[in-house]
Amino acid sequence: MSVDNWKEFLSQTDGRLAEMRPGIQGVMKGFGEVAKNAIAPGALDSKTKELIALAIGIAARCDGCLGYHAKAAIKYGATREEVMEAIGVAIYMGGGPSVMYGAEALSAYDTFKDEK
Fold first, then answer.
1. What is the pLDDT of residues 36-74, one digit of tens each?
2. Three-state helix/strand/coil letters over 3-25
3. Is position 1 within any domain?
């Protein structure tokens, strides 16, 4: 899928998640805790972890992952150059389909970077 408007896409996705959350509260609470703890700084800082998550989102071809992790990478100070290198690693690991999703990830990054 190609996302034309990342802000609108994430807003729609937020709405869909909000609709789903009450039906599986325990699962979503647990997932939130996993996410919080996975991104918390440790041996790797949060920015590096978000770049890893972005690269995995590219290789896994997850549109929502691209938007949320591009936005979070910006929050933690990721530069366009760092995002480009993460895209390069995703392409190495995911081949041709990751080239296409890498371009989408860069689009998401550029969209949210312009918000700052």
1. 999 999 999 999 999 999 999 999 999 999 999 999 999
2. CCCHHHHHHHHHHHHHHHHHHHH
3. no
Q: What's this model's pTM, rounded to 2 decimal places?
A: 0.92
pLDDT in tens, 20-30: 999 999 999 99
Where residue 12 sits, what CATH number does that domain have? 1.20.1290.10
Contact 59, 98 (CB under 8 A): yes
Q: Which amino acid is at 66?
A: L
Give the Å distances, CA to CA, from 31 to 25, 49, 82, 97, 103.
10, 16, 27, 27, 28
Count Cα neighbours of 49 within 13 Å in the Cβ-side half-sphere.
Answer: 15
Tokens of 86: 């993460």
Total domains in the fold of the chain: 1
